Amino acid sequence: MQDRCACYLLGLRGIDKYLAGRLSEDTLINNLAHEWASLPTAMGKGAYAGQNAAVGPDRVRKVLAKVRQRHGASQPAREIVVEKEVDKPVVPVSVEAEIRKRTDQWSWITTIFGSGGAGLAALAGMDWQTVTAIGALALGGLIIALLLRRQIVCAVQDVRRMIEG
Asked: How far apart are CA 125 and CA 20, in angstroms?
């Protein structure tokens, strides 16, 4: 029963944190000196005024080193994880072709509808400013589609270069 009580008090003062490496040896020694009057602080004095410790701090350090050694020996061996080599992902060449194909479709659709709209506006007797505005919108749509196509294809090529290294 006395051993269990001592283990409980060691736990309260941080022995588990010390063994895990989250508490310094000096801090643990000072904590233990406040629990047991016979143990010194890290400076070699008693924790309370006028108190003399029964042993020196070097003796406490040796005992703590032995405790840490025994604790480490009783722990299961850590498993070393070896990373497996993963195949590099590849962006297929067909992605570029598909992007070009789809942006070409939108370019044609924009051109056809824009030109058709301008032609119908001219046939309907609209003034030349309206016909020009419709034609300019169609031309703007075509330019945007062409620019986006080039930008998207360049982005896919950049991704491929980064992946392939």
From this structure: 88
